[in-house]
Design goal:
Number of strands: 17
Shape: globular
Radius of gyration: 29 Å
Distance between the termini: 58 Å
Oligomer: single chain
Strand content: 15-25%
Length: 559
């Protein structure tokens, strides 16, 4: 047994790594505490965050905090990292401030916006004189007057502003009716840059009602029909009489097929800009010709599996996988078209070429050459590892989208055979009306909270919008808030993650004239300004908009 070395401690650390200073709570305690200014300077110099002193016992002596023996002393973030952590609408909590919860856009939780809930962060006061800084790890935009197009479906929007959102609730009967009529007739509403009092602006309130409308099929009020991926827990215990009734399932799917075909026909004639099909396994985005720089109809499917891709290939559907760059580059170099050949097995000629170097060394007989079965198994393993990931996204173009329509109508993988979603047709979401669709409304709710400011407490107002927020609704709502909030607000956007990959920019064969494309889509039911924004080339890649901040009518965003 080794003798202990005098003066040596195996847990010895440098003082800056173990120094833990705490701020005093309330009144001064007995003993000789470190002065507050000195403690602050020492802690900041050591890169540590400040914490309060432990509680004082009745006798005046301090009870030392018990340290976790399994915790590391060198894994705490630096003070700079703690300050920069969080979205642009958050700040570190000041002593005595009233905390409000800030929801994380990376997790789709069921948290609600409430007052006086203890939380680590507070909502910052928006100020035109103090610009917001973002972490360098995020995609950050420069100053811009328009937001980039985001093709993901949002589940929640949370807006905050120093001006109230009371104008967005308690619409009068004629205002609600006018908003519905404007939507059905695709009425163009152009608002001024600033409204004196939004509460008395009938035009603004009607336009807000118009921007919250979307169309859904099927419509079952007792079931949450979006999102469908991972919704088994929310649907568990709900009444579904069709799960064991094949006749009823056939009727539901027949009705669904009629609605799906109606949507595709509207898309083909450019009377519908886009629509979504949400199944329990994947989501499909159909876009009309003229969007994202494409001159033909396109369809994205994400995520996919090897079985689904094989079934599409067997039906003669040509597709490409835009994020599998290796196979695409290989096929481009060989001069072949980008169909569904990404999954072809390695040919015998390629295998002979790959083992030619063994013949040059004269050891070809000593090395066991892998057989075709082993090669196929390795390739299948690689394809399976890609399943259910963003890289498995599939792109279908042109007339192949019509073949895809027939494939989806007859596909058995479209409907779950067991579980809470058994026998339930996929959800169809569209910005315009179609056969068998039901008009639905996004839910909007405004609240107000107290936040700490230099001169005391100030009111901070929030507006929460929940539901399947499609791209056109996001652009319409932000345009209205630009007017109602005098060009100053912040937003946290919660995306349905499987749809974030729809923002990739696939390669196009021909350059589309944006002006002519917008003219051809003039009757698709969208405002010309919204249509102009959606016709832009996607810039977000596999990500989506997470945070938006507007100051002086200028956007800053990050994804």
């Amino acid at each position: 047994m080794a003798l202990p070395v005098p003066g040596y401690s195996p847990s010895f650390k440098k003082p800056p790594e173990t120094l833990r200073l705490r701020r005093k709570r309330g009144h001064r305690v007995t003993g000789s505490p470190i002065p507050e200014p000195v403690a602050r300077r020492a802690a900041l110099a050591a890169g540590l965050s400040l914490r309060p002193f432990p509680a004082v016992t009745g006798t005046g002596s301090r009870t030392p905090a018990r340290r976790n023996p399994f915790a590391r002393l060198d894994n705490r973030p630096s003070a700079a990292a703690e300050v920069s952590d969080g979205p642009p609408c958050e700040q570190q909590e000041a002593p005595g401030s009233v905390s409000v919860p800030v929801l994380d856009p990376n997790h789709e939780s069921d948290l609600q916006w409430e007052e006086n809930v203890p939380e680590k962060r507070t909502i910052t006061e928006l100020s035109k004189t103090s610009p917001v800084s973002f972490p360098e790890t995020d995609t950050l935009s420069s100053e811009c007057t328009e937001l980039p197009v985001d093709w993901s479906i949002k589940t929640r929007l949370l807006f905050t502003s120093s001006q109230p959102f009371t104008w967005a609730e308690h619409l009068k009967a004629h205002e609600e009716a006018q908003g519905l009529v404007w939507h059905c007739r695709a009425t163009e509403v152009t608002l001024p840059q600033t409204v004196q009092d939004p509460r008395f602006s009938t035009e603004l309130r009607c336009a807000f009602q118009q921007s919250l409308i979307y169309w859904l099929h099927p419509a079952l009020p007792w079931l949450p029909l979006f999102p469908r991926i991972g919704a088994d827990r929310k649907m568990a215990g709900k009444i579904n009489p069709w799960s064991n009734d094949e006749t009823l399932q056939h009727v539901l799917m027949s009705d669904w097929s009629v609605s799906f075909t109606s949507l595709y026909n509207l898309l083909k004639t450019k009377l519908c800009p886009y629509f979504y099909i949400c199944t329990y396994q994947f989501t499909v985005l159909f876009r009309a010709a003229g969007f994202a720089g494409s001159d033909v109809i396109t369809a994205f499917i994400s995520p996919t599996t090897r079985g689904l891709r094989e079934a599409m290939k067997n039906e003669g559907i040509e597709y490409s996988m835009p994020l599998i760059k290796g196979s695409i580059l290989k096929k481009q170099a060989s001069g072949t078209s980008l169909g569904h050949g990404e999954e072809h097995a390695v040919s015998d000629e390629d295998e002979e070429e790959s083992f030619s170097w063994l013949k040059e060394m004269g050891v070809q007989d000593k090395i066991k050459k892998p057989d075709i079965l082993s090669i196929k198994l390795r390739k299948d393993k690689h394809e399976v590892q890609m399943d259910h990931r963003p890289e498995s996204i599939v792109l279908v173009k042109g007339m192949n989208t019509f073949t895809l329509l027939n494939f989806l109508i007859n596909s058995k993988s479209l409907v779950a055979t067991s579980g809470p979603q058994a026998g339930l047709p996929p959800t169809l979401l569209s910005p315009v009306a179609f056969r068998g669709a039901t008009m639905q409304m996004l839910k909007a709710r405004s609240t107000n909270v107290k936040t700490q400011a230099f001169s005391g407490y100030k009111d901070q107002f929030s507006l929460e919008i929940t539901g399947p927020v499609m791209p056109h609704s996001l652009l319409s709502v932000t345009t209205l808030l630009r007017t109602s909030q005098s060009g100053s607000f912040s937003a946290v956007l919660y995306a349905h993650e499987p749809t974030a990959v729809f923002n990739i920019c696939p390669s196009v064969d021909t350059v589309v004239d944006k002006e002519n494309a917008c003219k051809e889509l003039a009757n698709c039911g969208l405002h010309p300004k919204t249509l102009d924004q959606l016709s832009q080339i996607p810039l977000l890649g596999k990500s989506s908009l997470r945070h938006v901040d507007m100051n002086d009518y200028t956007y800053h965003w990050r994804s």
